Amino acid sequence: MLRFTTAGSVDDGKSTLIGRLLHDSRAVYEDHLASLQRDSRSAGREEIDFAFLTDGLKAEREQGITIDVAYRHFSTPKRRFIIADTPGHEQYTRNMVTGASTANLAVILIDVTNGVTTQSRRHAFIASLLGIPHIVVAINKMDLVDWSREAFESIRTEYAEFCAKLPVTDLEFIPISALKGDNVVERSANMLWYNGPTLLAHLETVHIASDQNLIDLRFPVQYVLRPHGSFRGYSGTVASGIVRVGEEVVVLPSGWRTRVTRIINGLEDVEYAFPPQSVTICVEGDLDIGRGDMLAHPANVPWVTRDVEAMLVWMHEDPMRLDRQYVVKHTTSIVRGRFTELLYRIDPDTLHRVGTHYSASGREDGNEVKTLGLNEIGRVSMHLFRPILCDEYSRSRHTGSFIVIDPITNFTVGAGLIIDRAHTYARTISDIENRQLTCHPGHVTLRDREMALGQRPVTVWLTGLSASGKSTIAYALENKLVEEGRACYVLDGDNIRQGLNRDLGFSQADRSENIRRVAEVARLMNEAGLIVITSFISPFRADRANARNIIGEDRFIEVFVDTPIEICEQRDPKGLYVKARAGEIPDFTGISSPYEPPESPELRLESGRLSVDECVNLIVKLLRGKRILD
Amino acid sequence: MEKLHLSNLETLEAESIHIIREVAAEFESPVMLYSVGKDSSVMVRLAQKAFYPGKIPFPLLHVDTGMKFPEMYEFRDRFCREIGADLRVYRHEEAIAQGVNPWELGTVKCCAILKTQALLNALEEGGYDAAFGGARRDEEKSRAKERVYSLRDVHGQWDPKNQRPELWNLYNGRIRKGESIRVFPLSNWTELDVWLYIYKELIPVVPMYFAAERPMVVRDGRLIPVYEGTRLEPGEKPEIVMCRFRTLGCHPCTGAVRSSAKTVPEIIEEMMTVRHSERITRLIDHDQDSSMEQKKREGYF
Description:
With about 625 residues, chain A is an alpha+beta fold. Chain A contains 17 helices and 30 strands. Chain A folds into four domains: about 1-210, P-loop containing nucleotide triphosphate hydrolases (Rossmann fold), CATH 3.40.50.300; about 220-295, Beta Barrel (Elongation Factor Tu (Ef-tu), domain 3), CATH 2.40.30; about 305-425, Elongation Factor Tu (Ef-tu), domain 3 (Beta Barrel); about 445-625, Rossmann fold.
């Protein structure tokens, strides 16, 4: 099976080429062909326009654009193909990177009448960045230059020179006419001077078996399979290397050594497994191995590190920021982290580095690069809050890549390719032991703490207007839980604002910072095993979303104390509403500053209608329902 | 020499199993849509393999329009019993009681109620945050643009312009409360792959896939099966035709194809020379321009 991606600028004839490949290799069904003819006719085309075959969405057909990556399938007697068809429009670097991430080969189209453009250079750069080992350059529209050998050779020379600067090993040039079909599937009778293979013949025969890394065993644990007491297996996909029954492996990050006792592939036992098989591995001993851990050979382990350097492709309209947290998904683990430094941006058209060294601490020499925008590519340093187990991308695609997720929108905003910083990383398990790179800071795991305390630590986050009853409910809940023998603690304005946060005022920025610090403290307390109850107005959705992100989705329980402002104002125990109405307190929530109610809180308490006991009981019921309290 | 290379089917199998496990690991309450068809049968087998020697750790869900072929119900119940699956069946009872049918409402409305709305009801009722479907990218143009993880909003709707980029095999499973994902483990399979896998793995399928003599009427060049309750148009007379079904749906809207393929190898042979896509037999895909895209936007798979 060959997965390839296609890249070309607008009007280079990429869709026509794909349509031609599919059509001439008889991969287009007659009913699809009929609808293609219909679409072409209704768009006023005289001949069949193959672009309509690949532009799948109505919006695209109507506007004549390709907005997304599409996947096509065809096969010949020799090979099965999956095409990732990505649009060539300049702002769609994102899509090409996506398509290229799973490809073994890239077909880059160049319109012979336009010559090598900045975009053609960009395509080669992205293909090499993503580690695609084979590049085929299809020089198209040869019919328009009267099948001229000179035109073909001149582009070939220019482009090969450019590609020589890139780590591209296999580069092939083919003159074609996608429109007329020359050298796509059928040999051209118009270019007898060309002796090489047709495009399809090349795709069918290019040797890809040796692209596989069979040296470095990396087995990221994806799923712990424990169907019944006696069986425990670790399921996952072999990222690289070969694993065999009987051999010694090391479990990372803990460093425990053990032996493989059994490998299951599907419904069968096998003696060994290799990439990209999805298998289940059993090992000796009763070890605590979980999702995100990795098995490797003791003499050949990945880096265990919190700090990585990577080439980063930014994929979102909101630019990359050095001053905020992101979520990173790397193999099967999810960690939070931030970019600490943007070393430079790379101009894909010239391969020049733009700007150097802008760091979060503000060090800046020069005046250029402070961020990466949509479709920009740069080299970054990143600090992660937990170590990951990684390799350089050029060595192992799966342990060398990660995606960056915006914790608020959950959008995938970036793609990272890890770069070697050999001198700073440990390479073997003895290095790790020697350097005491212990990854569990202590020996007590969260599970141990949970067992000891008999509870699952969560943060019950009360939000609502001033005088809505948050603190009253918080302390009543604390009482009730302590009576039950639970370890819990209330964080509120009194114990936070007077100490930890006494440097903060009530501006919007200070309020955000206040909430962020409260969330961090709550997280620490949760990690220590405590149930935390917080009582803060926390009026802004974005701040609460940030708190949810810091504390963790499964530990954050948002409770909206929904008391109408009239009742709050009547209660007004501290006389704050009176002062706010008189204009003495600026930015007072509900009066001169907005309160954004939660859209979907875990629980809503109408405390104007319910007694304090009733409110507390509803929270306890929720906690029992979620099996946080047994 | 040791084998260190996977065949096409083995590669596809490994990728699908990876996807199924990833969802089981990251989501609280997944469910696997089971439509009784060949793709579902393959998907269920992949799930069995993903968790062997354990059982499939999530339920199967059949959204039943009440208009499936009797052979399908029989097969469904036997198949699920034999593999010990936790099968849940959802029917939009209110609509079925009202007699919703394609003859009076048209196929578009009928599908919207008995399939899409029923599916959304079932997912909401079950509180599922991830739903596996057997759709493949080679089936239809708008499906070629689907991600493996297809994010749906609170109403189950698909927004093709706002899809998350999907790189390597790193799937982004982060969702907000109320949102869900549809997951397509068979994204990269073709119809031929499905049959080759059924052959290799001896996977049971509904007998309707195999050629037999069946009563049919010919309408606009299509073979429409005649069942109890099928409404014939004036002048139509059932005739006995040697045929088989390439896809299985509701009996009023699923056509057959003329075929003499009575075994899996014969079907595979037919597949290698066939010149029409399988969805040509599904009346619902042709009822309006971009009808699949529209249905997906509304919440269909």
